[in-house]
Design brief:
The protein is built from 6 helices and 6 strands; from the N terminus they run βαβββαααβαβα. By secondary structure, the chain is of the alpha+beta class.
Amino acid sequence: MRASGGSTSSVTINSSMSLGDIVDAINAQTSTTNVQASIVQVSSGSYEMVLTGTTALDQLEPALDLDKPIDLAMFNAAFEPARTEFDWLSRDEAIVDAYIADPRCGFGIDTDAAKDMFAGARRVADPGQVAAVRSDLPLYIAAGELDPVNANLALLNVLAGRYRAAGLTDVTVRTYPGARHEILNETNRDQVVADILEWIDQVLSKP
């Protein structure tokens, strides 16, 4: 993570960690390093923005039965008749086909993972947790306008509204017409990445 003055701080993440564990690890560093913007290094030569939740996820919970696995194909309904069950991910057919062909992809969310995910979502949505975020921490929220996971921006607007209501003064929202769920794998991904990099430069150039 990049902190004030250009210094860095490390957070170790492994496959046994839940979403809540990851949040705790990052928050522990945030409270001590005055973080301005976060970039996660995923290999020796690759840096990616990997924490890209742009939905008030807790708002999805009432519509789901967490005692049953979640079939992600349900997000494809808005795109029927569709070429595949995963057209909701991106307009880029090559990306969708690569996802389908990857044996590590294509599965839903089992009951234990779903319950863990929404437990974390409820915690993140807790007003006390939101109020604890530093008011001058720059926040960047980007999403596709046709992302069914955030209900075509409805849940993104809830998320941004929560942070603004909590007193955050530097919340940037960037949306992309026609884009779906995976904006970093969309047909306009070059623009998405350019916008993220421009925002990071602006944040780090502030006194």
